Amino acid sequence: ELSLLVMRGVFVAMQAAYILWAVLAEQRPRAAIATLMMFTCRGLLGCSTQLPLPAEFLGSGMDFPVGNVSFFLFYSGHVAGAVIASIDMRRVGRRRLAVLYDTLNLLQFVRLLACRGHYTIDLAVGVGAGLVFDMLAGWYLDSKNIDSGDNRCCSSCQKALVSQKLTS
């Protein structure tokens, strides 16, 4: 079980690192905006739909959070974050990396079902949430006339394209 937690942590760290790299190094904010929107919505849905625990509920040290605190977030943020990162990778032509993320996400999907970490609907809605929030982030950037950087893969590629245009 510990190895599964480590694998999940590594995959989540990979998602976060990729999204941070896209926004900080490549100046492509769309994936970061989509992720912020997704986690904000997830938190609001969780807070607005949680039910109080019965008075006779006996919590254990294995519960998260510990004690008699109701904790519920509707869809899988891990799955949605991986979908957002994968879409962004495809957008800039990193297809092999996107296939790797999709494969790892599918394995995560199976692990969460097998370990009863989420209901099936949480995982399916997580995929949909990733798609929807990526689209909403694109609409947001378009409405603000902000260059989302979707047409470049990195700043060094962009510099190479500019210098190539200047020489031709």
UniProtKB/TrEMBL annotation:
Q: Which positions, given as ranges, span the membrane?
A: 6-24, 31-53, 65-87, 119-141
Q: Where is the AtPDCT1/2 transmembrane domain?
A: 7-138
What GO molecular function terms would the record report? Answer: diacylglycerol cholinephosphotransferase activity
Q: Out of the domains of life, which is the source? A: Eukaryota
Cleaved signal peptide residues: none
InterPro entries noted in UniProt: AtPDCT1_2_TM_dom, PDCT1/2-like
Q: What keywords does the record list, in alphabetical order? A: Membrane, Transmembrane, Transmembrane helix
Question: What is the protein named?
Answer: AtPDCT1/2 transmembrane domain-containing protein
